[in-house]
Amino acid sequence: MTLAATLSGCAWGGQGDRQDVRPPAAPRGLTVQAGSATTAHVMWNQATDDTEVTGYVVYRDAKKVKEVPGRRHMVDVTGLKPSTSYAFTVRARDAEGNLSEDSRRLTVTTPAAAAADHKPPTRPARLRGEAEGSRSAMLSWGKSRDDRAVASYEIYQGASKIHSVGGGQTATLVTGLRPGTDYTFTVKARDAADNFSPASPAVRLTTAAGKDSGRGTAPAGFRATTHRADGAYYIDLTWTPPRTGGAVTEYQIQLDGRTATSLVFGGTAPKDRAEHSFYIGRKAGERHRVRIRPKLPDGTWGAYSPTRTVTTG
């Protein structure tokens, strides 16, 4: 016991080498997409740590299934069963082995298997790309044909897969790009039996130079008004969702400079015009500033809308 106490009081490298016991923050922005009857594509945003995130651990139904290095923020989980629901979470790890809390938990259902299917889908046609400012690009393509059905489309930047969307979607917003940089993208179709189409013709584009606000990912036409009902005041919001190639199901509402709440649309999310109303109080003559931002399909937050000022009463 005395020896143990003596050793623990002796720091081999001095006070500057104290062990890191603080875990990283939990990964945010988790998204999961079924790639086929037996695979799922899991993506998340980079986690933060007081030193460095060295890896991520992916869990399927609370069981560890994948480990990836800290520079990667996506992985394909294979060996799944057709027509089965799976729940995924991700944790970040630092160099000392400290693990973060779980990310949010997302569930995905794999499509039914296609028995004895060896025929791949046709290649996606007419791939088009347009830079959306300095850090994102909008891609769109023609539908592929398959003898059964297209389960997903896989998006590649050069030779690296960077995203996956459902088989009913033929456009997507790619984020996290660098300003003033040339990019080459292709798309492949995938069916439930894991047959891949040939790659689409490549599209090349250059992001805008310099910094921008990411306004291309912000809601458009944002308006805010107030109304009174049963002695209370409410703020009414309307906007047009940004172009992302898919539905935007979640928004973050900021009120008077602070995050007030997250708005999540259940069922079918609006594509052309969205609206939301929330309680603000019972006092007349109060001024409030409000703005919103969308959560994009790849799990990242888009840009904020312009700030609107409203007065109750």
From TrEMBL:
Gene3D superfamilies, A to Z: Immunoglobulins
Pfam families the UniProt entry points to: fn3 (PF00041)
UniProt domain Fibronectin type-III: residue ranges: 26-113, 123-210, 218-313
Region of interest called Disordered, as start-end residue ranges on this chain: 1-25, 110-141
Transmembrane segments: none
Hydrolase recorded as keyword: yes
Record bears the keyword Oxidoreductase: no
Signal peptide annotation: none
UniProt keyword annotations, A-Z: Carbohydrate metabolism, Glycosidase, Hydrolase, Polysaccharide degradation
Protein name as catalogued: Fibronectin type III domain-containing protein
Taxonomic lineage: Bacteria, Bacillati, Actinomycetota, Actinomycetes, Kitasatosporales
